Fold each of these.
Amino acid sequence: MLASLIAFIPCISSYSALILVGSASSNTFVILLLNPIFIVFYGACGFIFLTLAYIERGKEHREKMLTHEREEKPRRQWSPRSWQGTVIQALLQSKKPLTWRELQIATDLNKKELNRALSDLIEFQDIYRIAENEDNQVRYLLSDEYYSANNITQNQKDEPLEWINRWKEVKKLDFSTDVGHFFLESRYLDDFSKELISHAESEVSVANPYILRCSLSDTLVEVKKKGIEVRIITQPPKDKNPVYLNEKQEYHSTLRREGISMLYDKRVHAKIIVVDNKIAVVSSMNFFANSSAGASWEAGIVSADPNVVQDVSRYLSRMFNNVTEFQKRA
């Protein structure tokens, strides 16, 4: 409104001048008032005043709308394997602020991807930029708003080990989780893998050459129905027996219909499970009954160490990203 009043000042001044002239001579006042120049002048002043008032009112309305949107807009939920989600996982696992270079090493993102992720996270107030220590380097840390909005405590990273220890007690197994790694074999490996997948909160990633119908594979379907993101990279189904081949293809179609992402690559031979980027299982076990149920000797290592899990997650991401369109359809 201030701009509108300022614009109207010349109009008021001119009108006041006319009043003075009019007081001196009523005839002169009438002549001036009826002069086309003055009519156009006052019309223009009125138009300018109304236009500026309309613009000013529009600005106030837009500001109110933006304020309302900021208050009502829900916080963004980042996918764990998005650029932003990868940065969040790196900060959660580090438990300390990280520099740009430290984040690049931890996330394996290129310059463009990392800068975009940081920009988005800062915009949504999920992270802050700070300068600390004598080197005065800019560091990034998760905001209190992120922790509170996602019901995360600073010590939540230790929670997986808590349920693992409870599971160990129930199974009467004797191994230590102090170093973050432990060894499992046979049916315990299968049982733990199903328990791990069932505890997923956001994402399950699997690399395995053989995905057939079995209780372990069905666990993936169960967590997908809960809204967990599940992705698999495997070899395309193959079997000399057409009946068995059709069964394998049908089961893969079932997994897809359930919303599970499946990619094919004939080179896959790794057997890996990563859950929520917190726990990784690297083993010899395949996703079919003879292997997972203990008919064959299987064994593996489980790790909850943040650095190890991060390395395994990056390896899996490269596997998923390197699959060509031809291999996806194989």
Amino acid sequence: MSYEKEKISIVIPCKDEHEGVMKLVNQLQFQDIINQIIIVDSSDQPLQLKEPKVKIIAASSSNGPSVGLARDIGYRYSSSSVILFLDADCTLPDGFMQGVEQGIRMLNGSIGCVGGPVESEVNASMLQRYYDHSLFSPFPRYYGTYIHGWSDMYKHHHPSTSNLLVKKELLERVGGFHGGYGEDLDFMLRMAKQGFLIAYIATLKVHHNHRNTFRSIVRNFIRLGAYYPRTLIDFPSSPVLIHRIARLAFGFAPAFILIFTYPTMTIPSLLTPFLGYYLLRVKNVKAALLYTTLDCVLQLLVVPAGVLLGILKRGRLVEKKVKKRSQS
């Protein structure tokens, strides 16, 4: 099936991000290629926005659905065959709609979705730009093109649902998005396991308002660690997860042990390569020191703590299921 002449639906989850989502709608609403803009709003104060193409779906404001569930709710209201998922705190650079058109042309045959780079805002702080430069960023930053499947997803960071074009029929076929953290990787693994391919193009780039406090970054990486156990249980043979777990086990675990065993020797030898990398990349001593420190703290302490929390949470869920079965 060809989607070239199809108009698309946009799905945007929104949780108390009214200013950002209104700016995004202003960038989108006059584009002929767009059929409708669906906003799943779980804000404490309901979003007030009346535009011809905009449909607001009110979700519960008490904590609200997870961003994955919000996307899942939104696409089911779509009347289009192609869905573009965006985040409420994204802005679109010049040329983005040409990237959308290019992506739509690629959605044929076995290609199920198309993503692109996620970059910080132009006026982002030094801390926010950590996501642009870190070796361990949770956002894709590759400025090329690739098409991957189940066996070679590990070669690049998978696309983000911050800017993802997807066939609606594919979403229905694989069951949409789940409600936990890491919903983008979970969706792509389910899709790839069924034989569909993941495409990525640089022209689909968006600017994202990244986390701007140390506390919010720590919480982000704890959640990243927490989804590994569940995803590994659901997809034990996934090459991308095996690759990531191997990196954690054979890279960071020994470093963690050595730091506490031989700190005076290990810490300088560990920090020097990272510091050199960031000095070459950002050419700013203060930023290089900050990013090196964040990498070490997040990868040696925060992510493992998240993995442990994920294991404990998974254990509690299994225990509840066993109790229910025994009582029935």
Amino acid sequence: MTAYVLRTGRPLWASPEKVIELTAQGEAEDLGAPSVDWMRVPLQIDGKILGAMVMESHPVGIRISVMDLNSLTLVSNQVAVAINCKRAEESRKLPQFSIDHADRIFKMRDKGRPAYANDVACQFLGYTREERLSLTAQDVDPNLAREAWPNYFNQLCQFGSLTNESTRVTKNQSLSTQRSRAIA
């Protein structure tokens, strides 16, 4: 019965007679324990079926009605929206995780302070993210003159990103040569 709903995208409320009819037509398979009533509702967003919600009544005397089907359909719409939101949230985590753990990446501002520094860049220099964001490019690159920054930033804006190799001063004041990517 569930495969029928997943295939058709339509809710199904079926009595034993309806199950026999659908099975005889080859539209559905009757699998599982016998029930008095079967109800299947697709979890659907924009015509895309994510799954199904299932309800069955087993004891004789307790029946599922069309009102129950309508209620389950309303609930399934909300569940589908929640699933879709959770999937969207999860899909946003991967790009951010990739940025945080990729090569050393800085998003620079016009005054030479980073708006963002990924985990790898901060760890390489020995700073916490908050500490690194409080420092200017000149604080960590002794070879970058303050007067050279506007030209560098203009190139950064023109090309969108720049990759360079330079000497950096780490938190413990040691010098380290690193390759990093700055993005505008």
